[in-house]
Write a structure and sequence with these properties.
- This protein is of the alpha/beta class.
- The chain is 25% helix and 33% strand.
- It has six helices and 18 strands.
- It has a seven-stranded mixed β-sheet.
- Strand 15 and strand 16 form a beta hairpin.
- The two termini are 32 Å apart.
């Protein structure tokens, strides 16, 4: 048994867990971050080189949160001397009547965030590689871009350690015992803490069910595709040419999907595309 008692133990060292642990350690809390796999790894939902960051959401509280999120990433860039954010802008495309797009546009304008509505003719000239008809409304989020996901994760973990935090990777939690001090059991030892935070993604209910906590989470696998362009001398999906895109509320059979696209990053001359099925309580991996 480990005799150390922590203020908090965070279970799961993806982007949520690493960010939580970073803020705890920065605020002076004695923190332990546990990860079942050896870092870095490709399991879970925090691996890969790129993720979208945007202010365009249809919920106002989310848009306000993103203002804080941008500033925190800028602060982490400055503190680690690492480039993490790449501004591209983002196209939000939605078929008429485009209620969510219009709601999002109203919120962005209310909060004085930079956005622009494209008319169809102007859009076709600016982005000839995209083929959308007059039945779509098109909104451009000027501050959107791409976060370098793997570097963001590493930056948070490095700062967490600099602030005195401890990481134990390759350390699978086998049980949790509530009490005045929570006991967290692993295959190797037992840790104690005043509190715990569980950021284990699809593995969450495996940890919480034995203590009578069954959360309504629905794990979802997301297939990520890479499309290679066919032009001989020019990559239409490169940074500086192609923005981030979200094709909102695409109906397929009896369900709705969002289609996301990012400029070429991971693989030369290939844009990143993935489809997300819309449902409540989803837990992506």
């Amino acid at each position: 048994m480990n005799n150390s008692t922590y203020d908090c133990i965070v279970i799961g060292a993806g982007i949520e867990g690493s960010s939580t642990a970073y803020h705890l350690a920065k605020s002076g809390k004695k923190t332990l971050l546990l990860e079942q796999f050896f870092l870095p790894h490709t399991r879970g939902s925090s691996h890969g080189q790129s993720r979208i960051i945007r202010k365009a959401y249809e919920e106002e509280y989310y848009v306000r949160m993103m203002q804080d999120a941008y500033q925190q990433w800028f602060d982490i860039e400055k503190e680690t001397k690492t480039s993490l954010y790449r501004k591209t802008g983002m196209l939000w495309l939605e078929e008429n009547p485009a209620d969510q797009l219009l709601q999002t546009e109203a919120i962005l304008k209310k909060l004085d965030f930079k956005c622009k509505r494209y008319e169809t003719d102007e859009f076709k000239v600016k982005y000839p590689m995209l083929n959308y008809g007059n039945n779509y409304k098109i909104l451009f989020d000027e501050e959107a871009g791409v976060l370098k996901a793997d570097k963001c994760l590493r930056a948070l973990q490095d700062l967490y350690v600099q602030y005195g935090g401890t990481i134990q990777d390759g350390c699978q939690v086998t049980g949790i015992e509530p009490g005045p001090f929570v006991r967290v059991m692993t295959k190797e030892t037992i840790y104690k803490a005043a509190g715990i935070v569980i950021t284990a993604g699809p593995w969450t209910n495996k940890l919480t069910s034995p203590i009578g906590l069954k959360l309504p989470l629905q794990p979802m696998g997301i297939n990520v595709c890479y499309w290679k362009h066919t032009q001989k001398f020019h990559n239409p999906y490169s940074y500086g040419v192609f923005p981030v895109i979200i094709h909102n509320l695409v109906r397929v059979d009896n369900s709705f999907h969002d289609i996301y696209g990012l400029p070429s990053e991971e693989y030369p001359d290939q844009m990143k595309v993935y489809i997300q099925v819309l449902c409540e309580n989803s837990c992506l991996f």
